[in-house]
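Re: that chain you flagged

S.,

Sorry for the slow reply, it's been a week of failed gels. I finally had a moment to sit down with the sequence you sent. For the record, here it is as I used it:
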Amino acid sequence: MYCEPLQLLDALSTRELAQVATPDRAPVIADDLMDATLRGTDRSAFDPADVAIADQALARIQQALEDADQLIDGFLRTRKPSPYTVPLDPVPGLVTVWARSIARYMLHKDRATPGGESQDPILRDYRDAQKLLSQVAAGTFSLGGDDPQPPAGAGSAEISKGCGVFSDAALSDFARDYGT
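Prediction finished late last night. Pasting the structure tokens below so you have them in one place:
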């Protein structure tokens, strides 16, 4: 995965993840249970029914992260002129950021945007990730030093001697034909 659930937790609050990942018609998972579920720590002190809901929420988060990976891989596979071998290993930090933005959008996609789309940071981050991924696919944006595509203008100049375009004979024929 380009972004693990803990990396998502580093960028988002436990409360936000609990609110967007809790299954419909279930009570929103308590922050401490959501945190323990994401971190894989002991949850024996919690009600088993709540733990089951937290597991469903974690499955939803993992699915959003997998969907983000597939979207990213789709762009990377179409890269011009040389596609990336996916999944990327090692994962550039920027790809993790994109995966996090895409997964967050997917978890939030059913919500209303009260300030309108132009005021929505989740939608903005998602669109920015897609824009940069499109540039990667087009070969106009590099993922960094390990990028298999040489940067534009890389390499040495080559000079070859070809036939002379303006030979003495060609110039005299031009002068004769055009009267100079």
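What I noticed first: Residues 5-178 form one domain.

Talk soon,
D.
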